Amino acid sequence: MTDLSALLDHADTNLDASLERLFALLRIPSISTDPAYKPECRKAAEWLTTRLIELGFEASVRDTAGHPMVVAHHAGATADAPHVLFYGHYDVQPVDPIDLWTRDPFDPSIAEIAGGRKVITGRGSSDDKGQLMTFVEACAAYKAVTGSLPVKVTILFEGEEESGSPSLKPFLDAHAAELKADYALVCDTGMWDGETPAIAATLRGLVGEEFVVTAADRDLHSGMFGGAAANPIHIVADICAGLHDETGRVTLDDFYEGVEETPSNIKDSWAKLGRDAESFLGEVGLSIPSGEKGRSVLELTWARPTAEVNGIIGGYTGQGFKTVIPGQASAKVSFRLVGQQNPAKVRESFRAYVRSKIPADCSVEFHEHGASPAIHLGYDSPVLQKAKIALSDEWPKPAIVVGMGGSIPIVGDFQKTLGMESLMVGFGLADDRIHSPNEKYELQSFHKGIRSWIRILAAL
Amino acid sequence: MTDLSALLDHADTNLDASLERLFALLRIPSISTDPAYKPECRKAAEWLTTRLIELGFEASVRDTAGHPMVVAHHAGATADAPHVLFYGHYDVQPVDPIDLWTRDPFDPSIAEIAGGRKVITGRGSSDDKGQLMTFVEACAAYKAVTGSLPVKVTILFEGEEESGSPSLKPFLDAHAAELKADYALVCDTGMWDGETPAIAATLRGLVGEEFVVTAADRDLHSGMFGGAAANPIHIVADICAGLHDETGRVTLDDFYEGVEETPSNIKDSWAKLGRDAESFLGEVGLSIPSGEKGRSVLELTWARPTAEVNGIIGGYTGQGFKTVIPGQASAKVSFRLVGQQNPAKVRESFRAYVRSKIPADCSVEFHEHGASPAIHLGYDSPVLQKAKIALSDEWPKPAIVVGMGGSIPIVGDFQKTLGMESLMVGFGLADDRIHSPNEKYELQSFHKGIRSWIRILAAL
């Protein structure tokens, strides 16, 4: 344990240098979903590879059909130490609407916000560059203080997490032997609050679908054709409006197949967290839960499946007005899955529903945007217990075990392809505005995040 | 009548010069709804003013709060001749989606299309620059052959017809004495078919509304908040989907107040036109009437009110996918009115309906985009009868009296503000693609349109 305090001291005294490196990574606009930023994604992968080589890793950029992976290996100090695979993603979400940012999203800075909290600003500061760099900087501390790492470490950084991870499954399949470890460490989740670290034990799955409805073969004048010609906006709106019934339940056939009720003792433990609708939604200017009636917001976001329209467009949407009946309209819809829901079946049920709503003289086209089942790690895993103690030593309050509403498909893929459990630990906060304008990451999350990984690596 | 054949001959032999002038006007991208094109709108007004001065008019560009008007006066050859006010608009619709145009919309040309028909291509070729120039060129023929005009003519060209005509009513109010004539000639309508001219006797009114729903104060991650936070896309879709019931009727309270059933003899005359759903909708790739059940397409588009969503947008609509619950979503909705429907009441009923659908923790904002009541001219007006004969002399088939689905608010304003009836004659065809990519105007419409006005002016 003497080593541990030297390591933690090193993280403290070298924080400025750690921040400088994070800023360099944040300045690269690695937006994976937009083909215009393809060279920037590669640049982020190359930057990380160079850094990992400096830390003694054998690291390289690996090409895929999409954006490249970064794979790195470090043998660690002793041959019989466990072998961990650390996962993070270097790609980020688009920045629109850009006019709502108060600072260039790719010009990171340290800012002070309400309550005197210091934050790191910029796209990717929390999701996921800031998070993955907490681990890289923990490795840097070990390298500087001990010359090596306490365990055998493989690192996998992905560049397509924000765009459905199309290359990930093939890459894992092709390099299963190289990537297989005793377990994975995944840093893409959040804390319970600024003082309480959290380990995620459940993760919702995701099905992404886009559909385009075509009616007339051209845009029509609504005076000349209005009242007689099919309006694809009406069809798309009708489809979206019909996804939920009055009680907030999703109406698709067999949608709830595989969904289990959360055990009452788990629900009780969540109820004790004191997170009610007002506090949960109040942070974003809302107050009334919008989903299934009679369930708490934690249950709605951690343990219940959803259908959400993430984008809709049709007709004239610029300034002013245009009396047009467009030829096409479209929407992007995602489903969050829990328990044993089957992504392929959900997709098929959705498509059948949409097709049933298309008039005989119109047509519909579907585009698939990713699929992953929900996963549920054991509450009693030993790795989880060790990490819980290490995190509780670092932070003001003891670590808790929670559910996660978002999808981290990699965790399902690690389980399915590599037969490997994942430990999900992260230091994001609910108000980090990930995927939104003015994303930030607490300076404390970054600093104590580095210290947390130092402790977890020591405990393992 | 010797004069008439000399005038018609002049129109024939000078067609190329007439086309050159039309092309010069079509080259000016006078898109009124987009503030970026404000200087171009003025340029179009100035071009027309210059041309009218050449023809002996006392003409000037008149400033308004928006785009300018063109007003021109010509005393005519004899003091006791009738006084007509000719109306057209020099502004055009936006050109998006620009990638569907096969040629620059502001680089007009003569093209040959299916069946050997020659057409004038470009935005505004049919709506309304090509149409208004038929009248200007008819005046040019009179000026060249007779040195004057057979009647007293006032011309009013507007530059905001495609964006709700905000300045028109104040302008008519302020210049009522100057603009008042015995009746108006309005050239912004179409033919029945390529051989049959038409005079419009009814016109639907229009109410334009835009509403913006705000839920959370930022864009949210659908994993973190999905199932708990209100999704404004769902709210907007629900509102749009609820505008019609299963029979295609509009659901707004009191919406059908003032709507009268079309007399059966009128419906019979329309039935004889042989315009069924398949022929009407087949031109644009459709076949099934989408509006109120049990009514013909002519009744649906000429004599029934509608609600159409002309634009909808919310969330991520770019390439790829983004699992976002947006803070806002919005739609643009227009209502076509008939009979005695009151635009103000329709707007209020719509807003009350929308407000009733907004959850207590969300909000809605409305933007008004124009309002005009429906109008119905007398079938037995003497001016209409004279024009019917003149048009029947020019074209292969006799002129017919029809209804119009689109709104021409000016006709209502002439009636209300200036106590003046309007004769609506135009030479557009249903497949002119007005408001759409690849707008065109038949060369024959332009040529025989000029000849038609020469005949109508002679008949008056």
From TrEMBL, chains A, B:
InterPro entries linked: Cyt/Met_Dipeptidase, Peptidase_M20, Peptidase_M20_dimer
NCBIfam families given in the database record: PRK09104.1
Hydrolase as UniProt keyword: yes
A Pfam family that the UniProt record links to this protein: Peptidase_M20
UniProt KW keywords: Hydrolase, Metal-binding, Protease
Protein name: Acetylornithine deacetylase/succinyl-diaminopimelate desuccinylase-like protein
GO molecular function, one term: metal ion binding
Swiss-Prot/TrEMBL GO biological process terms: proteolysis
Domain of life: Bacteria
Residue ranges annotated for the Peptidase M20 dimerisation domain, each copy included: 211-360
Coiled coil stretches, renumbered: none
